Amino acid sequence: MIDFEPKYITFDCYGTLTKFRMADMAREMYGDRLKGAELEKFVAFFAAYRLDEVLGAWKPYRDVVVNSVRRTCERMKVEFNEAEAEKFYLAVPTWGPHPDVPEGLSRLAKKYKLVILSNASDDQIQSNVDKLGAPFHRVFTAQQAQSYKPRMRGFEYMFDQLDCNPQDVLHVSSSLRYDLMTAHDLGIKHKAFINRGHEPGTPYYEYTEVKTIGELAAQLGL
Q1: Cα three-residue angle 135-137-140, rounded to 5 degrees
Q2: Quick check: 116 pLDDT over 90?
Q3: Are the beta carbons of 199 and 175 closer than 8 angstroms?
Q4: The whole model's pTM is what?
Q5: At CB < 8 A and 24+ separation, what contacts does 48-55 make?
Q6: At a CB cut-off of 8 Å and minimum separation 6, what does 110 contact?
């Protein structure tokens, strides 16, 4: 059990709540040009370049995605097409939640104020949030913060907007690299790792590991 009553439960959105389909789309779009291990290398480089693209100064999420595709195509010696790359960005608002999310969030929302901090653009995120099936107290984006996770500025922006401290929240994510490592470094003591299978756990960062949002609700006695 999580022996803590958070003022807010703060969530990463893409990957944690919303089923993030970048890898699926890459396999669908480039499967006619790359096969087997080469296609999986493309998927892995695409993910790595997306992380690298958000480590500097803020830029529109569309540019993050398109630049990542461009760099991956260059690495893999695949012809780059900007309109094709933009399809990844345009698809994001159409993606819905993991199957466990609506029921688990509805349980949490009966007692707690739910907040999102997402590496999203303002023109996309609400479509994804509307599909989650639960009310959110606030939704913060990288565009608002002018900074992407895993940089600290987004978290600090969220704390300022909520008028709270790191010790007041339970932060929930399926990613250590984007969220939980930074949360640890910022002094967020209470963290939950939703193990979606796309990153290995690292217990050093002191989190409660669960597989579903429903399990998280149960950890909080709901």
Answers
A1: 110
A2: yes
A3: yes
A4: 0.96
A5: 50/22, 51/150, 51/177, 51/178, 54/119, 54/142, 54/148, 54/149, 54/150, 54/151, 55/148, 55/150, 55/151
A6: 222
pLDDT at 1: 87
Single-letter code of the amino acid located at 126: Q
User: What is the pLDDT of the chain when averaged over all its residues?
Assistant: 97
pLDDT at residue 36 above 90? Answer: yes
User: Tens digit of pLDDT for each residue in 86-109?
Assistant: 999 999 999 999 999 999 999 999
- Go through 150-184 and write b for each residue having 16 or more CB atoms within 10 A of its CB, e for each that does not: bbeebbebbbeebebebebbbbbbbbbebbbbbbb
Give whole-number Cα distances, 79 to 30, 46, 84, 166, 185, in Å: 10, 14, 11, 45, 40
Q: Percentage of residues in the chain with pLDDT exceeding 90?
A: 99
Closest CA to 191 of 149, 160, 157, 219: 219
What radius of gyration do the chain's Cα atoms show?
17
* Measured CA angle at 152 (ends 47, 199), to 5 deg: 35
Buried b (16+ CB within 10 A) or exposed e, 9-31: bbbbbbbbbbbbbbeebbeebbe
